[in-house]
Amino acid sequence: MIYLDNAATTLIKPPAVARAMVRAMQTCASPGRGGHKAAMRASGLVYRCREKAAALFNVPDPANVVFTMNATHGLNIAIRSLAKPGTKVLISGYEHNAVTRPLKALGTEIIVAESPLFDQAACLRAFEERIRGAELAVCTMVSNVFGFILPVYEIAALCERRGVPLIVDASQAAGVLPVDFQKLGAAFVAMPGHKGLLGPQGTGLLLCGERGEPLLSGGSGSDSLLQQMPDYLPDRLEAGTHNVPGIAGMMAGMDYVSKMGLPHIMRTEQLLLHDTVSRLRGVEGVELFTGAEGTQSGVLSLRIRGRDCDETAQLLSERGICMRSGLHCAPLAHRSAATLDTGTLRMSFSPFVKREDVKVCCAAVSELCSAAG
To answer: In the 8-state DSSP scheme, what is residue 136?
Structure first.
């Protein structure tokens, strides 16, 4: 099997991830739910993971690292903490449904900073032109559809100057690009554990610059007499028993990312991207969505003239090649790129993809183009 759907989830993990999860299942109880050795072992593991995340993302206090089920969970906490019906929310033209659906459900007034694909300067200008009157901004760091790297640090500086709180979706950036919490100065930064951080599904992180409002209420292992959630982090936003095996696996994934280093990971994915583009650029019938150097991560969308994207993905799957087709839960991004009517076929890389995988995949795509012609 050739796996090229890492923007959805990284299937191939460092072996240490599974080992850490099994060890946690066998030795850890519930953190904060007892003073016995198994509970204390779990508490220590959970705190070490907070420390690891705080160091990796430059968060001053590990208590401001909150564990979530995924990025969607974290984004819902962040959005519902800062928005209410009628709030004017400025977003990029590349947001995922994990942002737009909660905003719509709350009845906010959504303002889209529309900009052309892979044009970072235009993206920043769009935010500058539309930020007047905004009460909240939400921006993804990288488009999950096209790999477009948005100028989030510049947008963050703009929001700070205008006094507009910012929520950052780092789903496609964490573990690949630098995510500096203090430099961003964001109210919240959300990310999954199962993508670039190479951890298991069902894990995520919310980096908190504000206290936040609980999405769930329940046991926290602290202040049990209170009938409200505690007023301090992380307990305030972590109701119920932690996913200790998942947290252990995510910490092992972060260890791997830290040892490899973000520059090496990004360089690896860029080489794979460039190799793919060079192999497919001259193939008749292939439309590639690519940007200038420094504007695209290891995510590549394409279309084949005369072929439905879903049909193409199925034909590739029959050859053992895993890619994703459709709208990728981000219709707004497709509207920005004028691909809403067709969707795209998406290839997305990870440190475990080999150049031979790219070669085989590109040969298969070329063959399908010939058959379509």
So the answer is: E
Prediction pTM value: 0.96
Convert the pLDDT of each residue in 342-373 to its tens digit: 999 999 999 999 999 999 999 999 999 887 65
What is the DSSP code (8-state) at residue 232?
Answer: S
H-helix or E-strand spanning residue 156:
helix 152-162
Contact 208, 54 (CB under 8 A): no
CA distances 71 to 131, 170, 354, Å, are 25, 8, 27
**The CATH number of the domain covering residues in 15-260:** 3.40.640.10
* Residue found under tokens 């850490």: 20
| H or E segment to which residue 92 belongs | strand 88-92
pLDDT in tens, 290-311: 999 999 999 999 999 989 999 9
Cα torsion angle, 83, 145, 190, 247, sign? positive
How are beta strands 204-208 and 65-68 bridged, if at all? Answer: antiparallel
Domain ranges of the chain: 2-10+261-372, 15-260
Which one of 1.10.287.950, 3.90.1150.10, 1.10.455.10, 1.10.101.10 gives the CATH number of domain 2-10+261-372? 3.90.1150.10
